[in-house]
From TrEMBL:
Keywords: Carbohydrate metabolism, Glycosidase, Hydrolase, Polysaccharide degradation, Signal. Transmembrane segments: none annotated. This is BNR/Asp-box repeat protein. PANTHER family: OLIGOXYLOGLUCAN-REDUCING END-SPECIFIC XYLOGLUCANASE-RELATED, XYLOGLUCANASE (EUROFUNG). The keyword Signal applies.
Amino acid sequence: MAYDWHSVRVGGGGFAPGVVFSPVEPGLAWLRTDMGGAYRWDAKAGRWLALQDGVSEGSYMGIESLAADPVDPGTVYLAAGMHWSLPSAIFRSTDYGRTWRVTPVPFRMGGNENGRGLGERLAIDPFDHDRLFFGSRHQGLWTSADAGATWHKAASFPLAGLGVPTDPRATHGGLSFVVFDPQVKGRLFVGSADPGTPPLLRSDDGGQTWHAVPGAPDDGLLPVKAAIGSDSVLTVAWCDGIGPNGITRGAVWRFDPARGAWRDVTPLKGKDAPAGGYMGVSVAASDPKTIAVSTVDRGYPVDTVWLSHDGGAHWDALYKRSVRDVSATPFLDFDGKANFGHWIAGLAIDPFDADHAAYVTGATVYATHELEQPGTLHWAPWTRGIEQTAIITLTSPTGGAHLVSGFGDIAGFRHGDLKVSPPHMHLNPFLSNTNTLDYAGRAPRMMVRSGSVHARVVPDTSLAWSADGGNSWTPLHVPAGTPHADGSPLPEQTGDAAITVSADGRTFLAETDVPRFTRDRGAHWQVAKGLPSRVRVTADKVDARRFYAIDFAKGRIVRSDDGGAHFHAVAGKGLPADLSAAHFTNREAPAPLLAEPGRAGALWLNLGGGLWHSVDFGKSWARTGETISVERYGLGKAAPGRREPALYALGAINGLRAIWRSDDGGESWVRINDDAHQWGMRIRVISGDPRRFGRVYIGTDGRGIVYGDPVNTPVKGEE
């Protein structure tokens, strides 16, 4: 079945560790992200184009490095691999990223690990552009002589690497960058960010022989990024860690290979230098003495870009004379006027226009066309077309905005217009991760949410409610629970306590250690008797008296008929005796039990990939959809003439993992995505729209929210 697919617009939102301008075609740029694939800037269209939406291997959405060909502008390479335990490959395109040749490789990558801001690790020989080198994290230096089709380890290179870690939480910096000198045939440099190794190695014969470059900083700093100018001078950024967090010291040094001499050009140094390091580096093509470097992890006074026009003798801290217009992506102003940014790992000056420069942050990409100008510098997000976020949850209510989302890192939004970046994130309280969302089926502007922060404990409360469809929120506090004997925090302190709202919007039920409900917006709470601790509750979307949950300890469905005050077992006739396949411990996992928006007592249950349906308030169940193994599923408006809701699922049929729709209660399914729309198949949540037949929302883990409509379906305004 043919579908039109689009991105829900937020604009950026995540970490893009590297931005690269083409050295041979004006107006062409490339961007790599840590979990959302690679992008190409289309100057004619004025937008970034996602290049890997057709990828089905999720690991390939984490881009470790990117290399733009120095001869053919349409040729580009990606080093793709999310984590050292997952598959890795080299991608090559000769048509600007429209199609790819994918070569699985034996060396492991970490596109979404610590150290992902290092680079670029992948480099193309400007004198023989079929020849490439890749500096790996764990397994030394690798090379290809046939445009990346085959690879072998560079035998003469003296650093073999530290080997693949055994701890899944560990990684290595490894070989942090490979840089060719475009002026001198055969000359290249390789940095090593593994402590205790020579930090910089040099070859003057194309990699046949190598020697360590003496004289570099020897106080525990690691080379993290480098750039070379037309005068062959190498500028290197140094840090005491690989980042993006935890860096406390840094430096900037320049190496002149003609003299064999280093020069310390660190913008701020000495005992009074603020904490933090340096990472992004760029040299202007028009003038090798014009260099820019970025700080990283410098919370005080602020991270910034430093600019020098005399090779580092004098520096200009650009934050002091910069302003940012974030009107296109206003969420960046969530804590006041958007500052210069953080995690500034990537930095580039356009080789065809020294006024045009860009740098990345942990939430966006900024660009200016005034870099060389005196006075105030104006920056704006350069993110049109980029949706690089992890979605935890989403819901499509029966009224109000058609979509309300819960993101990782940036909380989530009420999406009144899917084509416009929302005016603000979920605030009051601001919880960086929204873990659950629910709306009242008969009063859909009444909503509740739960969330967490990056710290172990939420500072104030992990719960909130809204009376205007998620536009504004009010904190919701539950009574202090009994402290755990082992000292671990309570679920309401961590964001593990989900929250549900009754169909009429009058009752909130919080899934704390001792589940409680309130009928007066949190002024008073009562214990929900008979409801097991720490289960996911589902509210009936029509009957306000009914709530449902799975009692995993006793293997049964429980239900409340009095608005959450008491729960009792229901027959659950037809269900297997073992319901443990629906059990989950991850607070971000979608609920296995869903209630139909338009029919009281109509429930759906995903039990280990099998779908079950009840129309009598959970008393009896029937298996449906036996041809599909479901991972994620959601409900939408029924097809014309049908009673059952449209079902949408991420699942497998005959071994094909795809997005499917069923209009007949799960008896038959049709695929609605295609090979060009897979998004790494990193999908965390899926839902139909209860007001628009055929509309499906998909929350990806790295490519934001995508939505689809059947081809040739007219789409009206979103509200």
